[in-house]
Automatic annotation (TrEMBL):
<dbReference type="InterPro" id="IPR036220">
    <property type="entry name" value="UDP-Glc/GDP-Man_DH_C_sf"/>
</dbReference>
<protein>
    <recommendedName>
        <fullName>UDP-glucose 6-dehydrogenase</fullName>
        <ecNumber>1.1.1.22</ecNumber>
    </recommendedName>
</protein>
<feature type="binding site">
    <location>
        <position position="33"/>
    </location>
    <ligand>
        <name>NAD(+)</name>
    </ligand>
</feature>
<dbReference type="InterPro" id="IPR036291">
    <property type="entry name" value="NAD(P)-bd_dom_sf"/>
</dbReference>
<dbReference type="GO" id="GO:0051287">
    <property type="term" value="F:NAD binding"/>
</dbReference>
<dbReference type="GO" id="GO:0003979">
    <property type="term" value="F:UDP-glucose 6-dehydrogenase activity"/>
</dbReference>
<feature type="binding site">
    <location>
        <begin position="86"/>
        <end position="90"/>
    </location>
    <ligand>
        <name>NAD(+)</name>
    </ligand>
</feature>
<comment type="similarity">
    <text>Belongs to the UDP-glucose/GDP-mannose dehydrogenase family.</text>
</comment>
<keyword id="KW-0560">Oxidoreductase</keyword>
<dbReference type="Pfam" id="PF00984">
    <property type="entry name" value="UDPG_MGDP_dh"/>
</dbReference>
<dbReference type="GO" id="GO:0006024">
    <property type="term" value="P:glycosaminoglycan biosynthetic process"/>
</dbReference>
<keyword id="KW-0520">NAD</keyword>
<dbReference type="InterPro" id="IPR008927">
    <property type="entry name" value="6-PGluconate_DH-like_C_sf"/>
</dbReference>
<dbReference type="InterPro" id="IPR014027">
    <property type="entry name" value="UDP-Glc/GDP-Man_DH_C"/>
</dbReference>
<dbReference type="Pfam" id="PF03720">
    <property type="entry name" value="UDPG_MGDP_dh_C"/>
</dbReference>
<feature type="binding site">
    <location>
        <position position="161"/>
    </location>
    <ligand>
        <name>NAD(+)</name>
    </ligand>
</feature>
<feature type="binding site">
    <location>
        <begin position="8"/>
        <end position="13"/>
    </location>
    <ligand>
        <name>NAD(+)</name>
    </ligand>
</feature>
């Protein structure tokens, strides 16, 4: 029986290993993590992450060929294939601070593998890492090898949170990078035969190590760039009376461009896009390519601009002040169908509104109060460095309440900001909500999910990103 061990039971490691266990009954999969509480959650009824379909897969395999354990060394020692899916945060200090990836977790995982291994291993990079990390890991392993042979593979994960199980079951492609030596090719084949249990052969791509590492950064940079492109257009649409949905649809019908991932919004979030682009920028700078670095930096700048533009629009529409006004925030996760709040645009929008002294009432169906309060006290990049956290309690947090119902959140509010595209926000009883709000009642739709005409008929003043402006908003001061 082939034994697989995955180091890191996070958003990537957990779902990926669950699907491998489901599709390869003859493979034993053990997911290990140093976090006792995380492993306990994976072994409980309440999994540590929310993903549609994940519960069923885990329940089906757990205890049969899927295990979760804190006994990291034992399972690493026993495995034939070791996936490394630990966090690779952005460095907050030292060389490359604010841009470069912090490989501390990776390096300590590699040294531990070298310490405990007694047989040959295939070590697979699963977490996103900078180009050439595999080479560094290879050096750590081979210099401490005690005669054991290691093959390093790069197998970046392309799943999207919210659709992780669907993506894993039916991936666009599986990418495996390895050394172009006979041993390297054999290792690629061994991993390809695992995926080959359910992924068609023509979707399993083999490349060299560096292409695989760079492909992951490039794919995320391209995706984020599409969002920033359509968001940049949304600002121009508002200024000219064009409708960003119509523009995006027209643009997307060009088969060279394609229709997906062209929705204008308050901005992208998630643990990967910004981090991977910063990483890419740093690699470009280190390689003497400042023009390329600046090109990609602009994708992040437009994303920041989009968030502050949204806050400015809220404040300027409401007579240039939200001080003391109750604003309902519907949605906090960075997108629907996940409870993940890492880098969610809601953090910057809420901080912006709190900066203008608003009172916020926040509701998200999958994010609890502790998480929201923690996120609102974090500094940039803190979220990815749980061990560095300083306890902070800014007084503005007294202005925040977190509730478990959209109607409660909107009661007596002056305005509503929709920041996550949860389906349930499309079908709320907006007449009831309108009745219970202060007047004039505003809706700022950061995801373009509400029916603008219907809401205007009810009496709301509605702002939708990139759409022709409400006559009310046209008369308000220009937005920077
Ligand atoms: P991702 O979104 O990439 O899956 P996460 O932060 O959700 O990242 O998960 C990474 C996991 O890796 C965390 O649960 C962390 O505790 C774990 N981890 C980090 N370093 C080690 C290590 N040396 N050994 C075992 N687990 C580790």
């Amino acid at each position: 029986m082939v034994k697989i061990c995955c180091i890191g039971a996070g958003y990537v490691g957990g779902p990926t290993m669950a699907v491998i266990a489901l599709k390869c009954p003859s493979v034993e999969v053990v997911v290990v993590d140093i976090s006792v509480s995380r492993i306990a959650a994976w072994n409980s009824e309440q999994l540590p992450i929310y993903e549609p379909g994940l519960d069923d897969v885990v329940k089906h395999c757990r205890g049969k060929n899927l295990f979760f354990s804190t006994d990291v060394e034992k399972h690493v020692a026993e495995a034939d294939i070791i996936f490394v899916s630990v966090n690779t945060p952005t460095k907050t200090r030292g060389l490359g601070a604010g841009k470069a990836a912090d490989l501390t977790y990776w390096e300590s995982a590699a040294r531990m593998i070298a310490d405990v291994s007694k047989s040959d291993k295939i070590v697979v990079e699963k977490s996103t890492v900078p180009v050439k990390t595999a080479e560094a890991i290879e050096k750590i392993l081979t210099h401490n090898s005690k005669g054991i042979k290691y093959q390093i593979l790069s197998n970046p994960e392309f799943l999207a949170e919210g659709t992780a199980i669907k993506d894993l079951l039916n991936p666009d492609r599986v990418l495996i990078g390895g050394r172009e030596t006979p041993e390297g090719k054999k290792a690629i084949e061994a991993l390809a035969s695992v995926y080959g249990q359910w992924v068609p052969k023509d979707r399993i791509l083999a490349t060299n190590l560096w292409s695989a590492e760079l492909s992951k950064l490039a794919a995320n940079a391209f995706l984020a760039q599409r969002i920033s492109s359509v968001n940049a257009m949304s600002a121009l649409c508002e200024a000219t009376g064009a409708d960003v949905s119509q523009v995006a649809h027209s643009v997307g019908t060009d088969s060279r461009i394609g229709p997906k991932f062209l929705n204008a919004s308050v901005g992208f979030g998630g643990s990967c896009f910004q981090k991977d682009i910063l990483n890419l920028v740093y690699i470009c700078e280190c390689n003497g390519l400042p023009e390329v670095a600046n090109y990609w930096k602009q994708v992040i700048q437009i994303n920041d601009y989009q968030k502050s533009r949204f806050v400015n629009r809220v404040v300027s529409s409401m007579f240039n002040t939200v001080s003391g006004k109750k604003i309902a925030v519907l949605g906090f996760a960075f997108k629907k169908d996940t409870g993940d709040t890492r880098e969610t645009p809601a953090i910057d929008v809420c901080k912006g509104l709190l900066g203008d002294n608003a009172r916020l009432s926040i509701y998200d169906p999958q994010v609890n109060e502790d998480q929201i309060r923690r996120d609102l006290t974090l500094k940039k990049f803190d979220w990815d460095h749980p061990t560095h956290l300083q306890p902070m309690s800014p007084t503005s947090l007294n202005q925040v309440s977190v509730v478990w119902d959209a109607y409660e959140a909107t009661k007596d509010a002056h305005g509503i900001c929709i920041l996550t595209e949860w389906d349930e926000f499309k079908t709320l009883d907006y007449e009831r909500i309108f009745e219970n709000m202060q007047k004039p009642a505003f809706v700022f739709d950061g995801r373009n999910i509400v029916n603008t005409d219907k809401l205007r008929e009810i009496g709301f003043i509605v702002y939708s990103i990139g759409k022709p402006l409400d006559p009310w908003l046209k008369d308000m001061p220009a937005v920077a």
